[in-house]
Design goal:
single chain; mainly beta; Tachylectin-2, Chain A; Jelly Rolls; 6-stranded antiparallel sheet; 38 strands; globular; binds 2,5-dideoxy-2,5-imino-D-mannitol; hydrolase; Glyco_hydro_32
Length: 584
């Protein structure tokens, strides 16, 4: 019997016993949840072109990489049910990052000292000679978090089906000497090599409320020594999960070779440190300088750390990870999009969690933030197109965009505003730093404004009892300047009162006086993934309409302000379904 099958049988019996003992703690709750688990997963909110397994729980993307021309995605997965637990690294491969072939789990608990209680998140590194190595967090018999190494069993297999764990595992672990808290020591990054030939890797950690990216160094990738200081830390930010650290070029040409391999340093190179804040479940990053001689990262002047800083996404997007795509010279970002359902509800649907569309990322020309854009491969799923250009969207108007499959679409629209109309913008007092998300709640899509709200109403029902509005509002601020707010407002996304419908928002760094305002939204049954201002800010929402499902869903453009705006250009495509169970 294969190792994985043995593991699976053991897992089932452990779970049975675990559940029995859990049941003695809280028999009522456990029985209720278990009863809810369906035999076949509900299909209603399953996505068509966002990655997800056929059933059960999925969370963080793990160890994405490209090997022998194939893309690999591993992810945190519960083979036994739709809630978090029994975590293994599930595995799929793809030739295009759109259609995927599932394989058996690549990494699962099997090593007594290293990971018998779980295989948590980690990353892949390409070693010299193109040998992939995975560092991941294992949960040991004492339930401590420790770091392990696995390598492919057969390097000539492009699918990398079998992985062998290093016999020295665990390679990094809490000791009385390092005084690392064994429940806050996890999620190794992709490692990078310095000019001294030594590998470096970061592990997420905290000490009290100080989030830390602990640095380890190694000559041989097996023996790791903790550096005297973390690469970086920040007070008051709590536990840093899933750190990611990589170089970006300050002189890129969008569209071509936008990414740098992880070990690149030098002139014209800046670094990004991303951390996943356990307290708020937000992925935040800073742009800064990495001093390799001291192994210290310093965020640029003015950079804000922690939850008030820059986020990859201002909606749902967590525990993300990038990898360098050597086939196309770009850096690609994967992120986990959780449900907005109660635990009871996602258990009864039989699955939980989706991955965002892989995004290409590069440094904005301002040098102050990243730009994110859906990988172009996703465009091959585009079907029938509906277009509009140079159309006035009058104050107070709503117009249907007919002719596209509104439950499964890619919409790219840009708006422009004439100077005379800009004058109608409401004033925004900035003396106390306004909170974008709060503003989006207070001024949702139904609240008339001066300039805006205008944008899209997606997954809308015919009677408009249900819709998700992705829109802009332009405000006047001091010194004849303007401020643009982008909202993803799901407060009316479903007549079902149970899902979380908190609207999301962010201010965009654009000047509506001189620039068009663009919005690209990928609509996929229960996901609305939006890219504002050509990828300067992203907001992802999960929504659960009860009427606006399948063919009944509609798409609208709307303007609920007193000023007119123009649609300079709009293209909306019906999207085909991606294959997630392709045979290899
Ligand atoms: N998920 C993993 C951890 C990580 C967390 C466990 C982030 O390794 O810190 O499933 O979502």
């Amino acid at each position: 019997m294969a190792n994985w099958s043995i593991f699976f049988l053991l897992l089932c019996s452990t779970i049975f016993h675990l559940h029995q003992s859990e049941a003695s703690h809280d028999a009522r709750v456990y029985r209720n949840l278990a009863d809810l688990q369906p035999k076949t997963p509900s299909q209603t909110y399953r996505t068509s072109f966002h990655f997800q397994p056929p059933k059960n729980w999925m969370n963080d993307p793990n160890g994405p990489m490209v090997y022998k021309g194939l893309y690999h995605l591993f992810y945190q997965y519960n083979p036994l049910g739709p809630d978090w637990g029994n975590i293994v690294w599930a595995h799929s491969t793809s030739t295009d990052l759109v259609n995927w072939t599932p394989h058996k789990p690549g990494i699962f608990p099997s090593q007594k000292k290293g990971d018998i209680n779980g295989c948590w998140s980690g990353s892949a590194t390409m070693l010299p000679g193109g040998v992939p190595a995975i560092l991941y967090t294992g949960i040991n018999p004492q339930n401590q978090q420790v770091q392990n190494l696995a390598k492919p069993a057969n390097l000539s297999d492009p699918y990398l089906i079998d992985w062998v764990k290093d016999t020295n595992n665990p390679l990094m672990y809490p000791t009385p000497a390092n005084r690392l808290n064994s429940s806050s020591f996890r999620d190794p990054t992709t490692a990078w090599k310095g000019p001294d030939g030594h590998w470096r890797v970061l592990i997420g950690n905290k000490v009290n409320r100080r989030g830390r990216a602990i640095l380890y160094r190694s000559k041989d990738f097996v023996h790791w020594i903790q550096a005297h200081h973390p690469l970086h830390s920040a007070e008051g930010t709590g536990m840093w999960e899933c750190p990611d650290f990589y170089p970006v070029s300050s002189s890129i040409r969008p569209g071509k070779n936008t990414g740098l391999d992880t070990s690149v340093i030098g002139v014209g190179v800046k670094h990004i440190l991303k951390v996943s804040l356990d307290d708020t479940k937000h992925d935040v990053y800073t742009v800064g300088k990495y001093d390799i001689s001291k192994d210290v990262f310093t965020p640029d002047k003015g950079a804000v750390e922690g939850d008030a800083g820059l986020r990859y996404d201002y909606g749902k997007f967590y525990a993300s990870k990038t990898f360098y795509d050597s086939l196309k010279g770009r850096r690609i970002l994967w992120g986990w999009i959780n449900e907005s359902l109660s635990k009871e509800d996602y258990i009864s649907q039989g699955w939980s969690g989706v991955q965002g569309i892989p995004r290409e990322i590069w440094l904005d020309k301002s040098g102050k933030q990243l730009i994110q854009w859906p990988i172009p491969e996703i465009e091959k799923l585009r079907g029938k197109k509906v277009g509009l250009a140079g159309k006035l969207l009058k104050a107070g108007s709503t117009q249907q965009v007919a002719g596209v499959t509104a439950s499964q679409a890619d919409v790219d629209v840009s708006f422009s505003v004439q100077l005379s109309e800009l004058k109608k913008a409401d004033y925004l007092d900035q003396t106390r730093r306004p909170d974008a998300q709060l503003l989006c709640s207070q001024k949702d899509a139904s609240i008339k404004g001066g300039l805006g709200p205008f944008g899209l109403k997606v997954l809308a029902s015919k009677d408009m009892k249900e819709y998700t509005a992705v829109f802009f509002r332009i405000f006047k601020v001091k010194n004849n300047k303007y401020k643009v707010l982008m909202c993803s407002d799901q407060s009316r996304s479903s007549i079902n009162p149970r899902p979380d419908k908190t609207p999301y928002g962010v201010f965009l760094d654009v000047d509506p006086l001189h620039e068009q305002l663009s919005l690209r939204t990928l609509i996929d049954q229960s996901i609305v993934e939006s890219f504002g201002a050509k990828g300067k800010a992203c907001i992802t929402s999960r929504v659960y309409p009860t009427k606006a499902i399948g063919d009944a869903a509609r798409l609208y453009v709307f303007n609920n302000g007193i000023a007119n705006v123009a649609i300079s250009n709009m293209s909306a495509w019906s999207m085909e379904r991606a294959l997630l169970d392709k045979k290899s």
